[in-house]
């Protein structure tokens, strides 16, 4: 659990303020260092190791044309991840992060690869435009599988990403229902739809949203509209938080998973650090609901955990600052008058 002891909080602030710098001169890095210290319960935190887990699954609604890419791309991108060719692989290698790929429910026959972690719930969800995306048993199984993976505390930092054609549409619907907002406010271009494609997407999602009440709890929203990878990622965030691991939340889809995780397990939210502000339309509304201020704003909307990986060096540096930076007393440097 997050350390909230008043003596620890006071000692933490004193440690930050007496480093060899003007008080507050490292800006948001100081608040980030404090957050990491509270998560780990120590004045000498460490964020030196990082694991990115990418959950992949397909969505029945993809057949309706909510994405500019065909559903086959999910399976093809899983192969690309396993072969090390995706942006997430490149970023992970360049930063020294580890990566694992999880089949949460890719359409077709199970993918056979020794490096793939299989937690398949099914061969893609049902078409959420017409009825529930999954059964209650399926959503519970996805959350539980994710929770077990997230609880494996092998690294100081956990990043989570996703792959699934149609999952920005699913995320828009889930977020709209959890927040009780019109789905049009949450719907953007996803993989790059043109104006006509965006109008079609909004029309389809509006009809899907009309199937259920305006506001749903997170579990029901995931069951009605989510994907196996989104539910599994929410579970993984909960498991990681329960294990005391720092969770760096990626962009729009990961933030929707974090929104669901926070609804299902409110205490998990204290372990989440938000990586970047996505260019996807609904992300700002989700961040506002989470009272989250991301570390970066790079105009990205790829997913895969790429933004979370890019934020890790900031988390790592903030922890190192608190752990290693000299104080005025230890360095023999005169403090402010």
Structure, described:
With 337 residues, this protein is an alpha/beta fold. The chain folds into two domains: 6-46 and 320-331, 5,6-Dimethylbenzimidazole Phosphoribosyltransferase, Chain: A, domain 1; 50-316, 3-Layer(aba) Sandwich (Rossmann fold). 46% of the residues lie in helices and 10% in strands. The chain is built from 13 helices and six strands. Strand 5, helix 10 and strand 6 (272-274) form a beta-alpha-beta unit. It is elongated, with a radius of gyration of 20 Å. The model has no long low-confidence stretch (mean pLDDT 95).
Summarize the structure.
The active site is at residue 304. The chain has 337 residues and is an alpha/beta fold.
CATH architecture of the largest domain: 3-Layer(aba) Sandwich
Shape: elongated
Calculate Rg over CA atoms.
Answer: 20 Å
**Relative helix content:** 40-55%
| Number of distinct beta strands | 6
Number of domains: 2
Quickly name the level 1 CATH class of the largest domain: Alpha Beta
User: What structural class do helix, strand and pairing data support?
Assistant: alpha/beta
How many helix segments? 13
**Main sheet strand line-up:** 3-2-1-4-5-6
